[in-house]
Design a protein that fits this description.
The protein is α/β, with parallel strands linked by helices. It is built from 22 helices and 15 strands. It has a 10-stranded mixed beta sheet with strand order 7-6-15-14-13-8-12-11-9-10. Strand 14 (546-551) and strand 15 (554-560) form a beta hairpin. Helix 1 (2-20) packs across helix 5, helix 2 (27-70) runs antiparallel to helix 3 and helix 11 packs parallel to helix 13.
Length: 693
């Protein structure tokens, strides 16, 4: 009996020493908690400076408005305005100095210091009962010490020779999700190579084998129960056989009835569910099944982060862009599927922190627009030289910091006036929107006018012209899409002072890259998006271009394609071949054009056509050459004319290709000789056609 008591006392002492020395907490958890504390302190400073900066800017805006309305300010108000500007600049400089939080390189001494603090607190907790017993024994309650000794002896005897497991508790899943960039500290016996995927409690079935659903159901059910989505002991129902592919697995499950759990509840705790399944949040995706009830969802687990690798956009992918029907390839989703932006009743708002990848997405949209001859691109650059590479290729390029706000106001006002003209033309055809008559897209007077405003806050926040610019943007957002006037707005930060609700409420696409907090994410994706589990502050800031897209009421995680290097140079050459050579930026002042007499009608050289037809007949089967068929269609139409889109549809040939033929034949005088009207010659790029608009 004495041996059993001594053995139990020894095991109790060893366990208490293990606990009091803070050895139940791993080095990785301590490291992550230190980083989390520093990140939270950094974020608090950023939010405080941002709040004070906004407060100062509101004061500046208010006093500026009063000055404009009253024709000046009192001396006290002037001093207040000066002080508010100083405060705004001071906090803006502080925000720039703070920058984005970077994970610090912590030495082992800092981890040991945190462990000593925990150990000191635990020792104090253990010492408190002993101090109380000594105090009682020294005062009035003499039997306190014998009673404590007896209790300890009984506890030691009860424990006996069974040792306590001296384990280290696992790192909480929510802590891992909040510190995704912190690499775990490898134990001495098992060194961990950076980037190695941790062992997964949930092992997916072997590819090609008949999957056994029971372990999958159990693992998912236990994970959801641990995150308090469903009660412990309840199981999800597997709706179909698990889909196992090389690199990922997926399962369609239904949450149990009478629990109140729905898809939105799982989405809110996705990071915790991922941790319970042995994954990080980037490798677990949850989506609702279209047409199913709110309890049915699909979980997809990946071996590696599906968006970790950048996917290049080649020149071939943009070689035959149709922005209206097929769209512009701009991004890739977690399954590697290309996402296309179709400019059919779609406007877009791009947001995110500095260096988050907005420029890569904007570059693709601009390139795609310039490669469709039906598009006239108006580029309003608020952070020159951000988009300067396109200055000679866009229809309009506004960038001069001294005059850009006034020029932007003039351009937007002109487009608002253009809407009235287009509305009358569509009304005469008995339609309300270009979407009802796709064949009219790109015809004379109905080109697609795409307005790209990079860093829109520079213009809407301009003290002199900002109000007019905001009003025109709201007008275009509300009514422009139906008439082929599309807005593409990019901003680092959005709130009602940058883009009011009357603008953002009519923007169909909301695409947000990485942001520093959930509030900034909500300003782009919409109020409450972060609360539903969609927040870009949880993304990896090192994955430039990774973001969340909101469209048609749903959300998608994706990463923008990357266009650069040789492909960028080739795309620019393709644009130059399609557009007018040597175009001058619209921002540069131009001398007034002197009226010139109308040029004489070109002399038609029919020998060019005869020679071409002879060569074509010698190399192709009769009637099989599409160029011969296209010319025959135009010749049969005669003075009535035929539109480029109709020719392309009849031949099954891309509209851009037909446009190239029309340009060549127009320069030779063949089209004019047939008596075809101007819209047949839309692809011609002579100066008279461009200036006449």
């Amino acid at each position: 009996m004495n041996h059993r008591t001594r053995s139990g006392a020894r095991h109790l002492a060893i366990y208490l020493a293990h606990w009091a020395g803070a050895h139940t907490v791993s080095n990785e958890e301590l490291l992550r908690r230190i980083v989390k504390a520093r990140a939270e302190a950094h974020q608090e400073q950023v939010e405080e400076h941002r709040r004070l900066a906004r407060k100062a800017l509101k004061t500046v805006e208010k006093l500026t408005r009063i000055s404009e309305e009253d024709g000046g300010l009192t001396p006290a108000a002037k001093a207040q305005l000066k002080g508010a500007k100083f405060e705004a600049d001071r906090h803006a400089n502080a925000l720039r100095a703070l920058g984005e939080f970077e994970v610090p390189n912590l030495d082992p001494g800092q981890v040991r210091h945190r462990r000593k603090r925990i150990a000191a607190a635990r020792v104090a907790v253990l010492a408190a009962p002993a101090a109380g017993i000594v105090t009682l024994s020294a005062t009035t309650t003499w039997w306190a010490a014998p009673a404590a000794a007896l209790l300890g002896a009984v506890g030691s005897w009860a424990r006996g020779p069974r040792p306590f497991p001296l384990t280290t508790r696992p790192v909480p899943a929510d802590l891992i999700a909040e510190t995704p960039l912190v690499l775990p500290i490898a134990p001495a016996a098992q060194p961990v190579v950076a980037g190695t995927i941790p062992a997964q409690p949930l092992e997916p079935p072997t590819v090609g084998a008949e999957p056994n659903p029971e372990p999958l159901i159990d693992a998912i059910s236990e994970a959801l129960a641990a995150c308090r989505v469903i009660p412990a002991g309840r199981k999800v129902d597997l709706m179909e056989k698990p889909d196992v592919q090389a690199g990922h697995w997926s399962a369609v499950v239904r949450l149990p009835n009478t629990t109140g759990a729905e898809f939105k509840d799982v989405l809110k705790v996705r990071s915790k569910v991922a941790g319970e399944l042995g994954l990080d949040m980037a490798r677990l995706h949850v989506e609702q099944i279209p047409g199913a009830d709110a309890k049915t969802l699909r979980l997809i687990g990946f071996d590696v982060d599906p968006l970790a690798q950048v996917r290049l956009c080649t020149a071939d992918m943009l070689a035959d862009v149709d922005v209206w029907e097929r769209g512009i390839p701009v991004a890739v989703d977690v399954f590697g599927r290309l996402l296309y932006l179709r400019l059919q009743d779609v406007s877009i708002l791009l947001g995110g922190s500095s260096r988050s990848g907005k420029g890569a997405a904007l570059r693709l949209i601009i390139a795609g627009c310039l490669l469709d001859a039906r598009v006239r691109l108006h580029l309003i650059d608020g952070k020159h030289p951000g988009q300067f590479r396109w200055s000679q290729l866009a229809q309009t390029y506004i960038y001069n910091p001294k005059t850009r706000a006034e020029e932007a106001k003039t351009k937007l006002a002109g487009l608002v006036a253009e809407m009235a003209s287009r509305a009358g033309r569509l009304a005469s055809l008995g339609i309300e929107s270009l979407a009802e008559r796709p064949d009219l897209v790109g015809t004379e007077g109905l080109t697609l006018e795409v307005v790209v405003v990079d860093e829109v806050s520079v213009f809407t926040g301009d003290p002199k012209h900002g109000a007019a610019i905001t009003s025109d943007l709201a007008e275009l957002a509300q009514r422009g899409l139906g008439f082929g006037i599309i807005l593409v707005l990019a901003t680092q930060l959005n709130d009602t002072t940058v883009l009011p609700k009357k603008i953002t409420g009519n923007v169909v696409w909301r695409w947000c890259m990485y942001t520093t907090d959930a509030d900034d994410s909500n300003t782009i994706l919409g109020k409450g998006a972060a609360g539903r589990g969609w927040s870009t502050h949880l993304l990896d800031p090192n994955q430039r271009g990774s973001g969340i897209l909101r469209r048609d009421g749903g959300f998608t995680t994706l990463r923008s394609l990357w266009l650069d290097g040789a492909d960028m140079a080739e795309v620019q050459d393709m644009v130059r071949a399609l557009r007018v050579q040597g175009a001058v930026p619209a921002a540069a002042p131009q001398p007034k054009a002197v009226p010139q007499p109308a040029p004489a009608a070109p002399v038609t050289d029919w020998s060019v056509l005869d020679r071409w037809l002879t060569e074509s007949a010698a190399t192709t089967q009769a009637g099989a050459d599409p160029k011969a068929q296209a010319f025959d269609l135009i010749r049969q139409a005669g003075p009535q004319g035929i539109k480029r889109a109709a020719v392309a549809d009849a031949l099954g040939t891309p509209a851009n290709t037909v446009g190239g033929w029309l340009k060549s034949w127009t320069e030779q005088g063949l089209i004019q000789a047939l008596g075809a009207p101007p819209h047949t010659r839309y692809a011609a790029t002579d100066a008279a056609t461009d200036d006449g608009q």
